[in-house]
Please model this.
Amino acid sequence: AVANGLRRYVFTSSVAVYPPGGEYTENAALVPPDYPNPYGANKANTERALFALGREQGIPVSTLRPAFVYGEHNPIEREAFFWDRLLAGRPIIIPDDGLATMQWVYSRDVARAAILASETDVAAGHAYNLSNYPPITQVDFVRLLARVAGTDAALVHVPRERIAQLGGSVFTPPFYFGNYLDVPPITVLPDRVRSELGLELTPMEDGLRE
Model:
């Protein structure tokens, strides 16, 4: 509908276009159209459709694949979920051993990447992973949040089986480890955004302190 005269289309996708595992570069295969996680499937299907338009009609498309986004005005129960508890002196539930990994990206870096992808010629036809590297474990994530908040973290390890028995959820309240954070890890490499767009992603501790 807007192809005539369009200079660049930048789509915000997600690392959920990859299956659990990694480490993935942007050239890795995306999840199939019938993937059981509809969020990842829909993001991947949209990317395929947009890049097809790029090939067939010359529409300059770029896609961004952020990991978990943190930052000011985040409406999702993620970092604030833990800070609320830490500042209230409440214990933090850690599923199993807490060694499952996550990757994060600062919201301002997502915005910066979108601007650069819209203005940089090399970005046309390319996808960009946006994530801190290396990944951080759940335990180290909570300890980092506590350090930034200037408090101590009382960690309580609970088996996932027991959490499930008591009704804990990753999708809807009652959350036990934030919204959607206790899921099989997807690990990506963010080298392309640095080499092609010149964007140095904010170190996680610096972003959280901001």
